[in-house]
Amino acid sequence: MPETFDPKEIKVLSDILALVLEESPGSAQNALDALRARARRNNLTGGALKNLFTSLATDPMRTGTSAHEAQLRQTIAQLEGEIRTQQGRIRSLQTTLSRTQMDTYSLQAEIVTNRAQQPWRYVAIAFGLSAGLLLGIAATQLYHSLTDPPPIDRSVYFR
Fold it and tell me: Is 24 helix (H, G, I), strand (E, B) or coil?
């Protein structure tokens, strides 16, 4: 008797047993005959068949499915909660990113404006310095012409 059973073989046996439990006696008898023939061909005894169904019924993978499903559902719910949390964080980070990009664009615009105005600033400073210098010279001359005593005419000595 093989220790592991082929899933196809188990499906065929379960189909045959389902036919045995039908109400029509003819098809049930045919199903029983097919079950006996298959058991003889595979060298399967009644006790081995009984053990097969017992092992399938007490299989921990099959009996613990409800607890396993509950654990999986809990894990899924937890992961969905984490997904919602991460999506919220992503939205807030996207908002921060867009604000930062807008600030970057405005700073770049200011830099371009300042660079465009720099040559005019130098011209304005040079013009202001030269105008101030000329104004200072003119004011000094005016002050000296008003406050100095009149010059002595020395041409008299040369006659």
Answer: coil
